[in-house]
């Protein structure tokens, strides 16, 4: 597990899903599709499995993992929900919202998942294949994005294999991910809320619903998906570009054309879904650098710009 050996390719039919669930139950590492990005899943309650996730990714061990559950009832066995947290779960689960909440005593979660924090990050994904695997495996699954630490996140099974082939037990191919950027992460505080990561559920929507401001966490270590450098294509990235410079791979948007485009029509949802695909293409190209067209900083555009700034850092 996590050591060098062949990675099984599974398709998302009944047989592939049953195989993925059986592998997971036995403590193996399986990359699974979600509506945001592919996750590298393993039993959250097994110390050795969680250690193997960190090892396969080469992840710094101070960066805690998200625990995936099939529904709110399973989540409530792991963390304490107050009325506000339950309201958000009711509204957005299953879906791309992660809640950081106080962990219940005796929760089936290895300490390495939370890196010893008293809180745990929980998410109930909407992807039907992920839902089926969670139901069949019957255990909470820790699943960070299925890429080497610091690299571009995967939105296809091909991206997963490019980064982790031979380092994980299997990948379940559910096609390209729909949202394309990682879940929005929020944490309730004694007073108010904090936004730990921008994502598909836009801050405006949460602020409206909560009726209070949603400051971005200043304590970076609490959301180290927020490490300054992350999502890197491994070459210099220049933002707000109107055209490519010499030896640059151009990622276009709207009226700004490129070697590929986030969205020729300027659609932000499409741009989010294509963001990592374009960064993977830029990484694979023979060009020495990457230039990216400006993207409006509204709605899911903020999550896109957040990832682009880290790719450029
Ligand atoms: O969309 C997603 O959330 C994807 C899919 C696979 O579900 N997963 C994902 O996981 O992005 P990962 O490990 O790449 O990001 C986990 C984020 C990190 O920023 C981490 O610091 C934060 O969650 N996190 C986890 N537990 C936390 C905790 N107890 N307190 C604060 N932040 C936490
Ligand atoms: Mg990640």
UniProtKB/TrEMBL annotation:
EC class name: transferase
Domain of life, per lineage: Bacteria
Residues involved in ATP binding: 59, 63, 119, 145, 153, 197, 231
One term of GO molecular function: double-stranded RNA binding
EC assignment: 2.7.7.87
InterPro entries xref list: DHBP_synth_RibB-like_a/b_dom, Sua5-like_dom, Sua5/YwlC_C, Sua5_C, T(6)A37_SUA5, TC-AMP_synthase_SUA5
Enzymatic reactions: L-threonine + hydrogencarbonate + ATP = L-threonylcarbamoyladenylate + diphosphate + H2O
Cellular component terms per the entry's GO annotation: cytoplasm
UniProt main location, coarse: cytoplasm
Tagged with keyword Secreted: no
Name this polypeptide is given: Threonylcarbamoyl-AMP synthase
Gene: ywlC
């Amino acid at each position: 597990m996590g050591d060098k050996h062949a990675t099984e390719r599974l398709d998302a039919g009944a047989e592939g899903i049953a195989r993925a669930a059986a592998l997971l139950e036995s403590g193996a590492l399986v990359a699974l599709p979600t509506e945001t990005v592919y996750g590298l899943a393993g039993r959250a309650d097994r110390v050795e499995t969680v250690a193997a996730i960190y090892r396969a990714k080469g992840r710094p061990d101070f960066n805690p993992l998200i625990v995936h559950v099939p529904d709110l009832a399973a989540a409530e066995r792991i963390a304490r929900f107050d009325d506000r947290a339950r309201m958000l779960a009711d509204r957005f689960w299953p879906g791309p919202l992660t809640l950081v909440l106080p962990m219940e005593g005796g929760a089936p979660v290895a300490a390495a998942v939370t890196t010893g924090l008293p809180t745990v990050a929980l998410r109930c994904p909407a992807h039907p294949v992920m839902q089926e695997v969670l139901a069949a495996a019957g255990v909470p699954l820790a699943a960070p994005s299925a890429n080497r630490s610091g690299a571009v996140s995967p939105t296809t099974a091909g991206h997963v294999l490019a980064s982790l082939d031979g380092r994980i037990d299997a990948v379940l191919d559910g096609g390209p991910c729909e949202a394309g950027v990682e879940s929005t992460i929020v944490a309730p505080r004694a007073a108010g809320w904090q936004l730990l990561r921008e994502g598909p559920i836009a801050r405006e929507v949460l602020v409206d619903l909560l009726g209070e401001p949603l400051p971005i966490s200043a304590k970076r270590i609490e959301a180290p998906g927020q490490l300054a450098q992350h999502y890197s294509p491994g070459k210099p990235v220049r933002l707000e570009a109107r055209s490519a410079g010499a030896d640059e791979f151009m990622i276009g948007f709207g009226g700004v054309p490129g070697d590929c485009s986030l969205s020729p029509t300027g659609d932000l949802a499409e741009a989010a879904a294509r963001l990592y695909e374009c960064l993977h293409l830029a990484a694979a190209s023979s060009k020495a650098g990457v230039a990216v067209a400006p993207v409006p900083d509204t709605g899911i555009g903020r999550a896109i710009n957040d990832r682009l700034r880290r790719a450029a850092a």
